[in-house]
Amino acid sequence: MPKSDAKFPFHFKIMQGIGELGDKLLGESRKLPGFIVELNSDGHIIKTVSEADNLDFIQLDEKFKSYLMIDVIDHGEYIYIKWQDLSKEHIETLLNTKFIEKDFVDSMGITKGYTRTGSVMF
User: Fold this and answer.
1) Which of 40, 95, 35 has its CA nearest to residue 64?
2) Exposure pattern of 36-48 as b/e (b: 16+ CB <10 Å)?
3) Which of 13, 30, 31, 45 sits between 20 and 30 A of 113, alpha carbons compared?
4) Which pTM does this prediction carry?
5) Where are the domains of the chain?
6) Contact indicator for 69, 58 with CB cutoff of 8 Å
7) Coil, strand or helix: which one is 20?
């Protein structure tokens, strides 16, 4: 059974932003909400593959150098997000958000910087 490991505010900003990105790219009424976007070195979208297009879309992470992905598990019981080789500036632009210093401090006061590659389970 998956376990949530979201601790930092920037994790939640990424989750919210990727959900809104999916709505823009694929429509709010889609039945299967998971998708992956392949990105170029400038952080621009090259390709979008939705769960509706390919039920094994999460396997594409092995083929893409840079990407952003969301997988909704058990009808929203869990949400998994993953990004690879994506700068802080590019993810902010792509998701129309801005990270601030406190986004990288958890409730225990532990600080974690942004990493170009990461994943979080909600």
Assistant:
1) 40
2) bbbbeeebeeeee
3) 45
4) 0.86
5) 9-121
6) yes
7) helix
Q: And the tokens for 115?
A: 């990493």
Q: Three-state DSSP class for 116?
A: coil
Q: Are 97 and 88 spatial neighbours (Cβ–Cβ below 8 Å)?
A: no
* pLDDT tens-place string over residues 46-83: 999 998 888 888 888 889 999 999 998 887 788 999 99
Only one residue has tokens 């999460």, namely 58
- CB within 8 Å of 100: residues ≥ 6 apart: none
CB burial string 79-110: b at 16+ within 10 A, e below: bbbbbbebeeebbbebbeeebeeebbeeeeee
d(CA 30, CA 34): 9
Cβ atoms 3, 121 nearer than 8 A: yes
* Amino acid, single-letter form, for residue 71: D
Token reading at 54: 């390919």
The helix-helix angle for 88-95 and 9-26 (nearest 10°) equals: 50
| Site of tokens 């929203």 | 76
Element containing residue 72 per DSSP (H, E): strand 67-73
